[in-house]
Design goal:
Chain lengths: 378, 628
């Protein structure tokens, strides 16, 4: 017999309930794993058929999945309570980078502390900042009042400036975005948003006038790669050539001449999507985009379903930041945005990026869980 | 506390999420549109761009045609030679690099000097510069072990022109040199795209078009760093055609051997075709030093040698022909009816013009007594020819001598020869803007005065005598055999035989000027001796050859052909400062005829290549180019 009670019981076994009870969201987890596997397939070709690189990236992904699982099990009120502490820690580490950081190519991004593996404190900040802003705005009713927004702005600007000073333009933009998204989701008034955007645009000519000539030249090259085809423009031109010559179905797996003959720079990291576009064509990229859209859609759904206001702000910010990663990377590879050095999320080779992304998804999942104490479950 | 989160706030965040999602969808749509534009709209354009990236078209140089002697002996070959090359753009510290490489491959001062010079010279970007032009197998092996330490250096096997008998053939084949930037501007650049050498002189220059061949094309796939991954397609080059010469390397060697250390020039023609069987200019040099990239110092040594080995005496040496042209002048005198065979004069040792005191002296102080034309040729009487020249006049003489080929450049495949001077009233006015004097006619009668000929011209004219008037342009390659010039016609054709009889008596007659050379031969030579003065002797002055500087001695000349009745070989030669034609030049000619007609049976027997190689060594050694 089919009764109302049965219907209620049936309801409790929907995935949403599953996530509320066990943390891990099976739908999102499966999507992430499929995307990760797809990424390994692309990497095998992009790395010039390097087994070791694929295995290492597979391990990175596995570590990230474990971290995601662990984070998803943490009680969200614990996360919330720890947020200010983690934010302060991340800020101190960033400060330490400015003084004791190590790195290459004229940038100090890494911290080499005894007893710890080398790491980039900016990766920690990618999650600590939106959480901190969410924590701050969550203290009062939404939409936030002007003083709260002012404090939030300070919380955002300080780490962004510290990262920009390393210098790491790509990451500082992403982190600024992640902080801004919290404010946006919290319901900043459109009028204020308009004023902020207006002020930003108005400051551009001032910024331009105080820049050095060489800096201006660099900015100009970012927007017009053809003006320096063998220098800064080389990457963009070769990436566009790879994508364009791929056509609808591509030149075949591991048969892309741009990638395999090394005309394409950074083919296994920032420009990996050009390899995909050359070898599997528009079809290959569309497949990846569908996976991304499903991930984003699922995350947005989880954001709306999150159990707390803090959770919704944090989940939404992480989701939108993920989208910014995607958009900036695709934009720079396809030649519509300047090359700022943002990897393709979940696909580009690199352990830190994958682990921190998956930890972010773990946070989104953690925000789904019903607080066991408050819900009275045993 | 969180449970009390207002519905209003929840809805606010929800609406913002939806707005963000919508914004994201729009941005994503823009990206997809961009991808569609790139991958569908501009697909063709980017396919072309990526193909241009991937494929490089490389020219493939054709193998240069070989040059062969008349019996098929290879005189100009292509041999791969290992060269040590440097790409200067890849070198950071050139001095350090040179120091390091010298430990493995020793470099001579010459090589380093030349390399530094080439470095500063103009070249195409990234074009490698030769550091050592000939690397031995042992050195190559030593280098190969440590090749990774010298990324800017590489060993390349380059096709190089190789002349197996470079000393014997330098003045005939000429040589090839590296295609210079100046050359590139003159030739069709695409035809030479894969070629590094070009004929500079001699047969190599004359037949450059034929020897070169057609360039091929190779399409290769390259990596971004320019590394060649594989060949995609290849259109083979067409090798250059071989050139068959009349030249006989055995005869060529024999002549160098006979001349020994003497300076001089010999031209030997095949009378039936005008083909050059031998053309010798001594001393010579090794043509291989040019094709391997001659060092400035070695070139200087060749250039400053007082014996001028680089100078081609046979083509460019301008000598007074002296008595060697008396038979031709005699025929012109007969044909123009200035004299006849019966006319006799009394020679008392000199000739005077009416009303002038000046004595034009005979080489024989006491004179030849009564002399007719036959005797004048056999004994080389000057007085007879002084008289005859005045009788016919300079213009008749010039008109009659021109058809023998005097006063102009010879042949079509002999680059670099000069025209000499056929003296005439018209020539003097044109060249010097001066009037002609009768006294100049007198000495022109014995091939002196303004007369200037090259050994090649003498051979051409003698060939006309041998062929009884038939004219052949001298030439190197058998492909030129069709060329035949305007014959020399005499009113009385039997005059040829009579004059040739007189020339036979020069060697075989009792009083012939070359009778010692004509003794004990199984065949008969028709010839004429000549002695050309290097300095003019003052009137009435006695002159003693022994007292003069060797370089002021007379040049000894001889022209002739044999056998006289059915000529197989025509020879014209000069031995510089050799003394008299009869004592020095005629024996050389006799040895040449003996070799060709007896030892080689007129070419039916092949050359002894061991002998040829030995003579080649000796010729090269003489000019000392390799002494360091």
């Amino acid at each position: 017999m089919f009764t109302i009670a049965d219907a209620g019981q049936f309801e409790s076994f929907k995935p949403k309930r599953y996530a509320q009870r066990y943390g891990l969201d099976p739908f999102l987890t499966v999507l992430l794993c499929v995307t990760g596997l797809y990424g390994l397939v692309i990497l095998y070709s992009a790395s010039g058929q390097s087994d070791s690189m694929v295995i290492r990236q597979g391990l990175h992904f596995a570590v990230g999945l474990v971290a995601m699982g662990v984070i998803s099990q943490v009680r969200r009120d614990v996360i919330k309570q720890l947020t200010p502490l983690i934010f302060v820690l991340a800020s101190l580490l960033l400060l330490a980078v400015l003084f004791f950081g190590v790195g290459a190519k004229g940038a100090q991004r890494w911290l080499d502390l005894p007893g710890l593996p080398r790491f980039q404190p900016s990766e920690l900040m990618k999650l600590a900042l939106p959480a901190m802003v969410a924590w701050w705005l969550n203290r009062h009713r939404l939409p936030p009042k002007l003083p709260d927004l002012a404090i939030a702005a300070v919380l955002i600007v300080i780490p962004v400036l510290m990262i920009a000073k390393q210098p790491d333009l790509g990451t500082s933009i992403i982190i600024a975005g992640s902080g801004f998204f919290v404010v946006f989701l919290a319901g900043i008034s459109w009028r204020l948003l308009g004023v902020l955007i207006g002020a930003g645009l108005a400051s551009l000519p001032v910024l331009w006038s105080i820049m050095h000539d060489y800096q201006r030249a660099r900015v100009l090259t970012l927007f017009d790669p053809a003006s320096d085809p063998l220098g800064a423009g080389w990457n963009t031109i070769q990436a566009m050539t790879a994508l364009g010559s791929g056509g609808v179905f591509g030149k075949g797996y591991a048969a892309g001449t741009q990638a395999q003959l090394k005309f394409l720079p950074e083919s296994h990291t920032d420009f990996i999507i050009a390899v995909l576009g050359e070898e599997l064509g528009f079809f290959g990229i569309a497949t990846l985009l569908v996976l991304y859209v499903l991930i984003l859609g699922r995350c947005l759904l989880l954001t709306i379903r999150a159990e707390s206001q803090f959770g919704r702000l944090l989940s939404g910010s992480i989701t939108l930041t993920f989208f910014v990663y995607l958009f900036v990377n695709l934009g720079m590879v396809s030649g519509v945005l300047p090359v700022v050095g943002v990897p393709l999320p979940l696909i580009s080779y690199g352990g830190t990026s994958v682990v921190s992304l998956l930890v972010g998804f773990g946070l989104i999942m953690a925000m789904q869980r019903t607080n066991r104490v408050l819900s009275g479950e045993t | 506390m969180e449970i009390q989160t207002g519905v209003k706030e929840r809805r606010l965040i929800g609406s913002r999420v939806i707005i963000a999602a919508f914004g994201g969808a729009v941005l994503l749509a823009l990206l997809v549109a961009r991808l569609l534009w790139l991958q569908l709209g501009q697909h063709e354009r980017f396919v072309t761009a990526s193909e241009n990236n991937r494929l490089t078209t490389l020219p493939v140089g054709p193998a240069r045609g070989l040059i062969l002697d008349r019996s098929g002996v290879v005189l100009a070959d292509n041999a791969p030679r290992l060269q040590l090359m440097v790409v200067p753009e890849e070198v950071e510290d050139m001095d350090a690099l040179l120091r390091r490489i010298q430990v493995r491959i020793p470099l001579s001062e010459d090589e380093i000097e030349q390399f530094q010079k080439d470095l500063d010279g103009r070249r195409r970007p990234r074009e490698p510069v030769v550091l050592k032009s000939t690397v031995s197998d042992v050195e190559a092996a030593q280098f190969a072990v440590d090749a990774h330490l010298f990324p800017a250096m590489r060993l390349e096997a380059r096709p190089t022109r190789y002349y197996p008998y470079g000393g014997l053939t330098a003045h005939n084949l000429g040589y090839v040199g590296r295609l210079s930037l100046d050359d590139v501007q003159e030739v069709d650049a695409t035809r030479y795209a894969g070629t590094e050498m070009i004929g500079k002189t001699g047969v190599e220059l004359a037949y450059e078009e034929v020897l070169l061949g057609q360039v091929g094309v190779e399409r290769v796939e390259t990596s971004a760093r320019g590394q060649i991954m594989r060949t995609v397609e290849r259109e083979d080059p067409t090798p250059g055609e071989n050139i068959d010469l009349h030249l006989d390397i055995g005869l060529q060697a024999k002549i160098y051997d006979i001349l020994g250390d003497r300076r001089g020039a010999v031209v030997a023609l095949d009378p039936q075709t005008g083909g050059i069987k031998a053309l010798v200019s001594a001393p010579s040099f090794d043509a291989n030093v040019f094709s391997s990239g001659i060092s400035a110092r070695a070139f200087q040594r060749l250039q400053s040698d007082p014996d001028t080995p680089l100078f081609n005496r046979a083509l460019r040496g301008q000598y007074p022909p002296g008595s060697t042209i008396k038979p031709m002048i005699g025929l012109v005198g007969i044909d123009s009816q200035a004299v006849d065979w019966e006319r006799e004069i009394r020679d008392r040792g000199f000739f005077t013009l009416a009303g002038v005191d000046h004595r034009y002296r005979d080489w024989k102080r006491e004179g030849h007594g009564y002399v007719d034309l036959d005797k004048a040729v056999i004994e080389s009487c000057d007085t007879y020819f002084y008289d005859m020249a005045v009788r016919m006049g300079i213009d008749t003489m010039a008109e009659g001598m021109a058809p023998f080929g005097f006063g102009r450049s010879q042949g079509t495949d002999i680059p670099g020869d000069v025209g000499g001077i056929l003296p005439s009233r018209e020539w003097k006015r044109r060249a010097r803007n001066e009037a002609w004097y009768l006294g100049e006619t007198v000495i022109a009668g014995i091939g002196q005065g303004y007369w200037v000929t090259t050994p090649l011209q003498l051979a051409t004219a003698t060939n006309v005598m041998a062929m009884r008037g038939e004219f052949f342009e001298p030439h190197y390659a058998t492909r030129q055999d069709v060329e035949q010039g305007e014959p020399v016609r005499l009113a009385e054709p039997s005059d040829w035989e009579r004059m040739i009889n007189a020339m036979e008596d020069v060697l075989h007659g009792e009083r012939g000027t070359a009778r010692q050379s004509g003794a004990n031969l199984t065949y008969r030579i028709a010839g004429k001796t000549g002695t050309a003065q290097v300095i003019s002797i003052a009137q009435d002055a006695e002159y003693n050859a022994d007292e003069l500087e060797e370089r002021l001695h007379d040049h000894a000349l001889f022209v002739g052909f044999a056998p006289a009745d059915a000529p197989r070989l025509v020879v014209a030669l000069i031995v510089e400062n050799g003394g008299s034609g009869g004592s020095t030049a005629a024996p050389v000619a006799r040895d040449i005829f003996n070799y060709w007609l007896v030892e080689r049976e007129a070419g039916r027997r092949g050359p002894d290549l061991e002998f040829v190689a030995r003579v080649n060594e000796a010729v090269i050694r003489r000019t000392h180019v390799y002494d360091r």
